[in-house]
Predict the structure.
Amino acid sequence: MKEITRIEETILLTIFRLKDHAYGVTIKDQIKRLTGRDYLYSTLYTTLEQLVRKGLIVKRFGEPAPIRGGKRKIYFTLTEEAIAALKNTYNKHKLIWSGISEGTLTKSYLK
Amino acid sequence: MNQKTGDRPNFLVRLLTRLYKFSLVEGFSGDIEEDYRYRRIEYGRTQAGLWLWKQTFRSLAFFLKIYTTWSFVMLKNFLKIAFRILRKNHVYSFINVFGLSLGIASCILIYLYVQNEMSYDKFHHNKESLYRVYITEDPPIRDAFSYVEAPWNLAEALETSFPEIKRAVRLVVRTDVVRFEDKSYTERYHLVDPDFFEMFTFPLLEGEKSTVLQNISSVVLTESCAIKIFGNDDPMGRQLSIKIGNEFHDFFVSGIAQDVPPNSSIRFSMLIPIDNVHKYMSDRALDNWFNVSFETYVLTANPLEDQDIEAKLQTVVRNHYPEENSDMVTLHLQAMTDIHLDPDLPAGFEGTSDPLYSYILMAIAILILGVACVNFMTLSVGRATTRTREVGVRKVLGAVKSQLIAQFLGEAALMSVSALFLGILLVHLFLPSFNAMINKNLFFSSDFWTLAFMFALMLFVAGIAGSYPAIYLSRFQAVEVMNNKSRTAGVNLLVRGLVLGQFALSIGLIVCTLTMQDQLRFLINKDLGFDKNHVVVIENHSAQDQSSLLVERFRNSIITRKEVLGVSGTSTAFARDWAVMGFRSDDGSFKQFYQLTADYDYLDTMEIEILNGRNFAKEFRTDESEALIVNEALVDYMNWDFPIGKSLPGKRFPPHRVIGVVKDFNFESLHNVVAPVIIVLDPTTLLRGINDISTSYSPRLLNFINVRIRPENIQSTVAMLKNAWQNIAPGHPFLFSFLDQDVQQQYQEIQRWGAIVRYASVFTILIACLGLFGLATLTVAYRTKEIGIRKILGASVFSVVFKLAFEFGKLVILANIIAWPIAFFIMRQWLQDFAFRTSLSLDKFLISAVVALGIALTTISYHSVKAALSDPVRTIKHE
């Protein structure tokens, strides 16, 4: 089972949500909309690069468009391993978070 | 084709694309571009542009971080290996670094020299608008010639005729006695126009630059001159007496200037207003447009773009010069900053340099550095055989070629940094003797340009010296290397050629050194036709009517002393300027001769041989005005078969005749053949008949006193002469020199260049030896097995050493064959400059061949003996 980092998790989930439309611009927008973090394309792509190398996502070329300076889009799709890894992460999260809610965090620690 | 969407994103996107070195690059750059265009539609061009810049800069930082993290890990490893290798082969490392540092040191020294030469007169604020006038004459009977002194009235004519010329300043230099209270000095002083300080950038410590020279009896001193005369007292307003012409005149110090920078073409220590010129030149002389004594500088309103003004300058010539001469005279302007290095114009009051020297020195520096770099390569490649395994292991472990190249370049850089520091050390070591050699006072400062130069030098050295080994070593195939198959044969040939070249260069330089030394020895030892040894030459600056009287009284006071062998007064001395006189001969041709005014004792004192006729004699009363003594050259020049009793073939000469002929003697430097000379007791007769004269010393005066002394106790004799002089001529400084030193002084330039060539040859030999050492390393490493097999088959140690030595000896002999004709040609050319010269004998060539061969064999003996002694079992057991 492949371990994934937090940023990888975020990106994988975003690709999952975007289904067939997952490529750089949409991924970056989506993450920004959901988490408020505005990643650099450089950061985003280095992580995507890593995910491809780990075999968690596969790339698929789209058509070149004038708006992209004639370059092709690269769409990303999750592999089965990614789904497994995400499931695993989800279960771990659930375990770690069990019995804790926002309310309990505030109550027990910050008075 | 891209849509026309503005250029800005493309540039930044391209930059980012370049930086992003991974497989998804197309998506990456496409996305950025797409995002940028959305933003431009949504928020406008500025906002989008801002966003893109932000992306770029933050990405730059990001990439820098991720790339260097890994590079640092590798760098640590590289450095560790580099230091280990430096330490392990400390002999090689030292030789390598030392060779490079020699090259770097010579480059820095020569850089300092060239920078100093190029910096002349650049300190003037308005340097772009400063010019000096020079005049070219093109007379019909001889080639055109130029001079940088101008007539008195030219400055005024220029100022009034041309609006472009804002100011003109004249300048003339004299040397005479300066008195302060009871002390007297012989000083060089400048007469200048009062605008001097407004035109040139010579800062004044005391005094106002517009008024400091307004008063005719004001004098401005430089700081060091003021200290010399007044010590620590305040010099302002003090009175000095300066001798101008025949009399002393009082001057009052009105200003103190900073000392003149060493890179100035105007070098003064004492300035007085130019109107004092009337004290030694008549108005008639000043108004003569062919009386050229004044360097004339002009300040133009703007830097001159073209040479338009030169055409206009001709109007001045047409308006002022005598009509028959106006066609052959042209006026020109020379930029102030060109003065020092202009090879086409003669020097003015200060010496100039031939830029050729700078070029020769630069060529030497580049050659030495280039050779040092080549040797660095040789040695590195020679060492490569032992490092093939390291390269192999690195490759097997996944190092890519660029990493290996970076590693070896880095090692070269490390070496060149060490070499740079060692080189700077060497510069400090060599600078004093280098200064003495080039007669300058250079110093090593860490100003911006010097540092930049050294940094560039270091990069250059690392790049050149490191690139070949880096490429060569990184090319090894891992498998071959691990199987111990090294290929060094190809390199061997290249290195062989380079070493050959270096030795040819060294041999050539040795030949040059020997020839120059030989010529110098020849110049110094040649029989000049007079005895130059043990003659004291005393300068006699006394006034017109007193000069011969003074000589007479001085002679009477010392001639009875046993240490004095002879005393004679002359108008000029050997190795100084002699008067040249010219007259129109009866057959219409123009004849010129050198003239000397002497007294009765001259020929005896100087031991000049009389071939024919007799010496001047007091018994013949007409000798005073009518007798001429000439040299053989004059007899030839006049085509006289029987010279005694002959007269010069000019109409205007009063009666006179030749009474004696002397053997030719070399009164000028041996660059020149002996020219026609006439010696007289009184020049009046000659002066009446000639049309033309040029001289630095008045022929009517006995400006010098030559005293021949006994060779023993020279010091006490000189003290005695000084004492006698001060009794006879109180107030006149006792200025003397030894004739043999004066004569040698003429060859200072040759001595200097001889020294430079000698140093260059030592440097190149040293470096060539390093190269040979590298080649020997390479060859022996390549042939270890061959030598092993030879030994097993019965070769003795001696025969192996001999075989190797023979191989390198062949190389040196080949170098000789290349070097000899080139050196022969160059030296023959050099010797052409001298009318009297030594021969280019074979022994010099043989000596240099033997020296080179000896040095070469010594250099390689270490390797060849080591290889010959090595145990064959060890060397051939590999594989």
The longest strand of chain B covers residues 165-180. The two ends of chain B are 60 Å apart (CA to CA).
